[in-house]
């Protein structure tokens, strides 16, 4: 971590401890890293050194060069090709500059509303492939007068920045479930071409995390109006990872095992459901870490 948080953040929920997993990955996950990301000692060490050299030569960026773990965070989604990781870092920070009104001072303590609205959460467990599962409920739970789409975006940024701290998530990636049950026209009108472009640019070009699937469930017919904004902007790689599932639970189970899903999706997960306010409690413990993340990037001119 980049801040002085010295203890592993955690929130006790009954018998279950909700926490970020900052420890080194298991042997089975390390095998995934070797097989899919070329993560072997003879590749990792020179890749870290080369990425550090590239960043040292870049006088416009301020980054934590001395922290190997931070460098590896960007090397993993680029399969340890230093030049690609360097380009990703530049895109990551350029996106923050372009959308500075959303990113400046972005911390959980300043964005509590989105979590208290309880339309955005991460499942407490990983799926059968070790991936984090982010759930957005942008239908019947979403009151547009109380929570804007920009707030939803900032909540997603905070969750995925936290996920990027976890070595296992860096390796296995994340999937997103969009639960659109109850979507109405008032909500559809919140989506604009500019918002669609920002989201697609973020997912395709700027986020240093392996987004392995975007699963649309319970969507009504009018969701097609929303998707038409996004469709022309999608490259094949991201387009191929979007799956429209409707109410077909068997199709959902082909991608996420029912053992890893809560009962609201027909799953058999025994771990208690964790709601937005409970996740906020954990994120608030890491507020100084998000402040540290915000301290790096392109130097202000």
UniProtKB/TrEMBL annotation:
UniProt name for this protein: CRAL-TRIO domain-containing protein
Cross-referenced InterPro entries: CRAL-TRIO_dom, CRAL-TRIO_dom_sf, CRAL/TRIO_N_dom, CRAL/TRIO_N_dom_sf
Gene3D superfamilies the record matches: Alpha-tocopherol transfer, CRAL-TRIO lipid binding domain, N-terminal domain of phosphatidylinositol transfer protein sec14p
GO molecular function: phosphatidylinositol bisphosphate binding
Upper taxonomic lineage: Eukaryota, Metazoa, Ecdysozoa, Arthropoda, Hexapoda
Alphabetical list of PROSITE patterns matching this protein: CRAL_TRIO
Pfam families per record: CRAL_TRIO (PF00650)
Top-rank taxon: Eukaryota
GO cellular component, as recorded: membrane
Domain CRAL-TRIO: 111-273
């Amino acid at each position: 971590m980049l801040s002085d948080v010295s203890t592993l953040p955690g929130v006790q929920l009954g018998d279950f401890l909700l926490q970020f997993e900052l420890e080194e990955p298991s042997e089975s996950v390390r095998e995934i890293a070797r097989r899919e990301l070329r993560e072997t000692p003879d590749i990792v060490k020179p890749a870290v050194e080369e990425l550090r050299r590239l960043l040292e030569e870049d006088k416009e960026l301020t980054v934590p060069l001395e922290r190997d773990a931070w460098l590896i965070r960007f090397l993993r989604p680029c399969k340890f090709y230093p030049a690609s990781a360097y380009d990703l870092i530049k895109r990551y920070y350029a996106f923050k500059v372009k959308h500075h009104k959303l990113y400046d001072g972005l911390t959980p303590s300043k964005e509590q509303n989105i979590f208290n609205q309880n339309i955005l959460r991460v499942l407490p467990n990983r799926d059968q492939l070790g991936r984090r599962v982010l759930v957005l409920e942008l239908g019947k739970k979403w009151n547009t007068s109380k929570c804007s789409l920009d707030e939803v975006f900032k909540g997603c940024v905070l969750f995925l920045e936290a996920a990027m701290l976890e070595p296992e998530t860096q390796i296995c990636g994340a999937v997103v479930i969009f639960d659109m049950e109850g979507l109405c026209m008032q909500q559809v009108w919140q989506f604009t071409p500019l918002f669609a472009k920002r989201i697609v640019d973020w997912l395709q070009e700027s986020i240093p995390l392996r987004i392995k699937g975007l699963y649309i469930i319970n969507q009504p017919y009018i969701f097609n109006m929303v998707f038409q904004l996004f469709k022309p902007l999608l490259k094949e790689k991201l387009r191929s990872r979007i799956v429209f599932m409707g109410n077909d639970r068997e199709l959902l189970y082909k991608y996420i095992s029912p053992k890893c899903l809560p009962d609201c999706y027909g799953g058999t997960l025994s771990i208690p459901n964790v709601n937005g306010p409970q996740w906020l409690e954990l994120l608030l413990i890491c507020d100084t870490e998000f402040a540290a993340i915000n301290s790096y990037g392109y130097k202000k001119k």
